[in-house]
Each structure stands twice: as structure tokens, then as C-alpha cells.
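ok so i was messing around last nite and threw this chain in just to see what happens. nothing serious, just curious
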Amino acid sequence: MTETVGSFFGQTFGSVHSGGGNQYNFLFQEAASRLREQARRRTIAEEDRTHLAERFVPPPGLQRARARLEQSHTVLISGPSGSGRRTAALMLLHDLAETGGTLHELPDTSDDDTVSSPLDTRAVNDGDRLLLDLSEVEEARYIDVQNALSDFRAGLGTRGAHLAVVLPHRLGYLLKDELKRLTVEIGRPPARRVLARRLRCDGVPFEKAELNESALGKFLTHASMRDVADLADGIRKFRDSSPADRGFPHWLADALPRQQDQSARVATDLAGEQSGRHKALLLSLAVFHETAPGAVLQAANFLLGLLSHPPDTTPRLDRADLHTELSAITAETSANGRVSFSVPEYDRGVRNHFWTYLPDIRRQLRDWFQVCLTELTLSADDRTGAVNRFAEQSLRTDRPEDLTWLAEQWTSRQAPVRLIPDAAQVLARGLDDERHGRYFRQRIYDWATSGETVDRLRQVLVVVCAETMARSHPDQALVRLHHLARRSSGQVAADARAALLRLTGSDRRLYRRMLDRLSTGIAHGPWGKDRDLFLELADPVRLIGYRDVRDSLVSCWTGVLLRPVDSWCVPLSRWLTAAEDVRHRDLVLRVLSASCARDVRVSGQLYRVALRWAGAGGGAERPRTVAHLLRRINSDQGIETYDHAV
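result:
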């Protein structure tokens, strides 16, 4: 069976809690479920790559890029923003024949300070297909990566590995001359073809002439590939929810306005408006769109108070009621009691306007949103939508720290536990962001390695690493989960270990990397929990034919065998049972004997446990297994062996 990262996902996260019984259990399950339901923008899991490949339209220049990748084992993809550079690079790697390696994205943080180079050659195995996305990298890191690229590339050919690099279009002037021969510029794929391909794959019926509609043509002229994908998804959703007598022109007419930018209209509407209450209602509805009118009013009052707006001293019954005030901002209440703007995408235009043209109150907007999520009575769907909207603006205006601040506030000991899924969601949104994903991966690493991180936040990090980070950056998810398993206790540590077992259980490369980390930790670190994790994770026969795997197993067992016998005798019995199979016997026993070769006392303990195991029953292979073990121990210690030893 082929092991892939993709097979790890789609599983239930498991039973998790953090000291509050069933309530915690439910909330962390809700957090995991919410993250699984979020749109996956940057995933490289096999199931998602296959889905993407079906909808992919090759851009101009892709054939040249493919030839360069095959010839040089490396290609650098250049192109304007919105042209689909990352998707093109991913599809080039996806289309390569599998030769035993995996397709994964190279880590973009220097975890554990294990290497000085920004590119870690240990992340490369035979036949690997590697993605390096530099599209949103800052200048200093771009230069550092280029300086390290020559040495990194040197080993690709001998390992049969391939590397596709997505270049930052805005930093083209910094590209080193020696890398230009590896660079291929791709163009923008025909947007109409991209839309048609996606619609066909989603089973949306349409006539070719219907894609020539003038408003659609105007949109497609300037739309990014992501916007085209969003339009196709919107058409599909209206197809699914529309009456049977409506067809493609109706679905398009409903979906297209939702892709239009209403910022200019909002600016015009606000140009002559001086009422603070009017603006507060406008922004509150934009953030808490399609919620109950009472929630919008309460949010507006919170905002006015936080901004020290003077109260209205007019008697309440002399003032307009909420229906009148909402009508004044072009809002309407539906039959189900939800209030929304009457113009599609007007809510996004309002949010864009406030965050763009009132930059001096962005910190207060963060505080306001925290109060609203804490105090308002909202459904799970209401909260999900509001968090997405706020996160979008924080990331768009380069304030990722607002989201990490919220995550800390919502997981503090004083915060209501119902905020736990919201904390997980803001971090997941940050991880998925093209420009700020690296910031969140680094921040999560800092939390995971800090002794001051509270248990609620640790538990959220386990969920976020397992459900979101592992889809796009499994190596970095593994490192963070390992630190959480080391530094946590109780249920948090158990859940981190369980997530690690699932992650490494579905990917051979990650399994080997985890064994390497454990061997280093057991040999040189103070982490006693690494020994327990090793005994839980290590499989006696999995990949044991590889020398590096055996070396890691020996290093780990050497440390484990120094502990009291009761702590390892049961796992050892499992290994001895695996050695009953003659196909694996020699390699399994070679690992065990090498683990105690330097300590006669330890080898004696191991042999006595093996004798008890053999005497506990079982077939004729047990005595043979123990005899083989003794021969290996004696050989490793330079002792002449005798056939009658057992």
C-alpha cells in the first residue's frame, strides 16, 4: 500500500479535552471540524492535488518549464501575480513519475536551529518532488535562499529528486545571474477556458455562447485565477440551491455580482455621512453579516463605547427604531430574521473601506472584535463567518499579530471556553495566507517551545497543526507536534502524540524524519518523553531494510534500554514477536543486539527478558529467535558463539 500524507487527513481528530470534561471534548472536536470545513487554499495532499489537476488549464510557458525541470531537476517559475504560478509549479511536480519519494513543500522556518542554511538538505530523499514557494518572501530571505540554492541543488540529480521554485514577481531585479538559465516565465491562462474547465468538472451545464456574456467578459479580463475559481464555485452553489426551472444564465447572474468590488460605491455613500452611529451600524453589519438584528445593534454599541463616542441623550422613544436605522444603511431583514445588505458584496466593500481608510483605529477594531466574540450570542456559523471576515482584513492590511493576539486572549484561563474554536480558526486562516503563513508557522513554533504557553492554547495548537499546517507543511507540523508532546502533560501530550502517530503512520518520509528526531533527542536531550514516544511510534519491521532507519532505531533503543526493565519489557516482546518471522528476524535482532553492545549489564537484562518471552508459550520459532538474538549479542561483543547456547 502506498503511504501518502493525504491518507492522514479526513480522519476524526480524536477525543480531546483539557481538563473540563465533555464540554472541552466537544469544543475541541468543533474546532477540528471547523478547520476541516475551511477552504483549503495551499494544501499539497494527494487527494487535493488530484482534484486540482482535473481542473488545471496549462498556462503559456508550461511546456518549457516542464522540459527545464526534467533536464536540470530544477525550475524557477516566474510570472505576474494572479497568473497561477504556485499551481503551475505544483502541477509540474504532480505530473512527474513517482520514483519512491514524496511530494512536499520545503520548510520555510529554521526550526530548532539545527541548520544555518535556509534550505535543509535533510528534507530531501531519493525521488522526492520538492516545492519551494518564495512568492511572498521578503528581500533578505530571498537573497539568503538564492545563495544556498546552488549547494542544495547539487544533490538533487544523484537522488533523482526535483525542485520547483515559485519566484516573487516584485523582486525580479534581485534574481542572481547564474539562476536565470533555470527560470521560465509563465503567462496567464485563458480565463474563459479556466472557468469552463472548472464548470465541467463540477457538472455545471452551460452552452459555450453563454460564456460570452459581456459582464462576464469584463470580469474575466482582469480576474486572477483565484477569482475565476471563486466564480466557478459560486455558480455551482447557486446551481445547487436554485429551483429546477432556472439555468446557467440565472446562476451566473446571481454569482457574478458577488465577485464585484463595491469599495468605490461604499466610499461614495460614506462621503457625506457624519453620523458615528450610522458608521458603527454599517461596520457592525459588515462584520456580523447575516446575523440577528440584535447582535448587530449590540456590536455597534460596543464599538461606539470603545471609541469613546458620546452617548445620545435623546429619549429612546424619540429616536429611530432599529428597523429604520438598518434601512438607512440599505440593509434588509429576511424571513428567517437575519439582516444583510441588499447589494451583493456591499459588506466586503464596507470592511475594505474601514480597514483601509481608518488605519488609526485598527487596534481598537481588534479589541472591539474580541469583545463582540466574547459577549454576543452567536451561532457557530455566525462565529465562523465573523472570524473569517475579521481575519481577512487583518491579513490584507498586514496585521497578522492581531490574530495571534486574539488566539492568546481566547485561550487564556479567564476566557469563556466557547472561544476555543474561534482561536483555532484565526490561526488556521493565518497559516493559509500566502503572505503571512510563514509568520504564523514561526509563531506557533515559539508557542510550542515555550514553557509559558497555557494548556488551552497548547491544545489549540495540536488541532491547528494536525488539521491545517500538516496539509501544506507536514515537516513543520511534525516539529511543532513533537515539541508539544515533549513539553505538555496529560491530555494535551496524549493528543500531540496521537497526532504524531497519525501523521507519521501515513508517510514514510515523515516516519524516518521522526525517528531521526527521536534518536537525537534520546541521545543528546533531556526529554524522557521521547523514549515513551519512540516505543509507541517505532514499528519493528517498517522500513527496517534502510540503513538510516536501523541507525535511528539503534540509537533510540540504546537510550531506552538504560531505563528500568519494566518500562521496556512489553514493547521488547512485541519486537521479538516480529522477529519470529524469518523474513525480518536478522534485521530486527541486529537492531536490538547493537543497542546493548556497549553495556554487558544491559545485554544481560535484554537476554533475560527474551528468555522469559520464549518461555511464555508460542510456537517453535520463539526458541530459535532467542538463539539468534544470543548469537548476535555475542558477535557484537566479540564473544565466540556456540550452537548449544540455548
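not much to say yet. Residues 455-472 form the longest helix (18 residues).
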